[in-house]
Amino acid sequence: MQKYADMDFMPLRWGHYRVLIIASLGQFLGSALTTLVGVILPLIRLASHDGLSSFQLGFIGTVQLIGIMFGSLLFGRLSDKYGYLLFFRVCPALVLIASLCAYFWSDIIGLDVCLFLMGLGVGGEYALDPDYISEIMPDKYKLTMVGIAKAFSALGSFLMAGVAFLLLRDWGDPVLWHRLLLTVSVLSAVIFLSRIRFGESPGWLLAHGKVKEAERMVRYFLGDDVVMGKLTLKQEKSTLPKGGLMRLFRHGNYKKIILTGFPWACQGVGAYGIGVFIPILILVLGLEPDSESHFTRILDSVRITAYISVFNVVGFVIGLWLVSRCYHIRIQAYGFFLASCGLILLLIAYLLHWPAWIAIAGFMFFEVFLNAGPNLMTFILPTEIYDVSERGSGCGLSAAIGKIGAIASVMLIPYLLHLGGGTLVLIVTIAANFLGGAITWFMGRRILPPSSSHKRLKSE
């Protein structure tokens, strides 16, 4: 007699890891693109557009984030109607086509259009990737696996910065900056090819009454001896009243909205505002070795960016270790405060002309605790705080507020650099981190008390 495995309680298999890797590549791609934009901005200014205004510089840095925001909404809605698998393939294909077009159409207008289209594709990835992972994973590993997927973004930043440095060092010419866009083409092509032999979302099939097909997809992903288990509950959840935004506000959820949305916006100042402009900030703060060649200075700033990006990975590793052990409000709040301490060290080292390694250490300290705390936890907290009937709208609104913060910070940083240099940028970012930590600490303990958080962790 054949023994069947319940997908909710079974041990991990190769099928789980396959879904995790393929779905997480979207997070990898999005972070790699953001890092690449930060690398090419000073190269564009040096190569052929020395007269770029603060608005133009900020818009180039922001346009892919605008695309991500719209892509999340667009492909999220379309996938609910037409299925996940189609758009799981369309999104990397869109990034591939747009990145190739950007290589050949490399003036400022063409670059902006193509970055927006690449952002659309990445936004779709952000909407679809977590759904695939959370549906397939056993209950015991869901939270950790979604966190690991988010951690792939740190790998994307590190590898893109490293590859960009090696390529620029080999080429030796800033005019060739548009060739770097081909790295995005290669990555998106790999993602697209990995999804040719893939399956439809079992949860989507079940929600649309296709039970037999859902069972077949579960067996396709995990093995012929696996049964759906409690996945059928998702069909029941799909019949709950839709939690539209107006309904969310009518139910008096403004405290939840503030707690999940505003810290996410503050986190966006560091993750995207600082993240996009790291090479430029390194140049402004004078952290790179002295050189008469401006291109050499840019190259050194990219190299230091790669070193700093290593600590993104370290931060996510620490956060993933803490996520199932500690109170989530405390992780996020302390992450904000400790990240601020790193920037304070960086600011003091810059103002007092301390050795560059101390300033770089402050930068690394900032990246570790930003990623161990708010960069990971803002992704998780909304799913804990909102009830099932309003979770979709609540998580979507929180993410939208967070992305607005990211877009605003990327647009403003060039103006801050013009008005007060790196000092003003650091002061504003420190203030944003302290604000995010204060909101998390004072509101979080009331909305999500430690006892309820522990109960939720145990149930998951």
Architecture overview:
The protein has about 450 residues and is an all-alpha fold. It folds into two domains: about 1-235, Growth Hormone, Chain: A; about 240-460, MFS general substrate transporter like domains (Growth Hormone, Chain: A, Up-down Bundle). Helix content is about 80%, strand content about 0%. The chain has 18 helices and two strands. The protein has helices at about 15-45, 55-80, 85-105, 110-135, 140-170, 180-195, 200-205, 210-220, 235-240, 245-250, 255-275, 280-285, 295-325, 330-350, 355-370, 375-385, 390-445, 450-460; strands at about 5, 225. The chain has a two-stranded parallel ribbon with strand order 1-2. Helix 12 (about 280-285) crosses helix 13 (about 295-325), helix 13 (about 295-325) runs parallel beside helix 15 (about 355-370) and helix 14 (about 330-350) packs antiparallel against helix 15 (about 355-370). It is globular and about 70 Å long. It starts with a strand and ends with a helix.
Query: Termini distance?
Result: 31 Å
What's the total helix number? 18
Which CATH architecture of the largest domain is right? Up-down Bundle
Mean pLDDT: 86
CATH class of the largest domain: Mainly Alpha
What is the radius of gyration? Answer: 22 Å
**Which percent band covers the strand fraction?**
under 5%
Q: Helix content range of the residues, please? A: over 70%
At the fold tier of CATH, the topology name of the largest domain is Growth Hormone, Chain: A
CATH superfamily of the largest domain: MFS general substrate transporter like domains
Structural class: mainly alpha
- What pattern of helices and strands is seen along the backbone? EHHHHHHHHEHHHHHHHHHH
Low-confidence stretches: 236-243
* Count of DSSP strands: 2
Q: Judging from the principal axes of the Cα atoms, what is the shape? A: globular
Main beta sheet: 2 strands, parallel
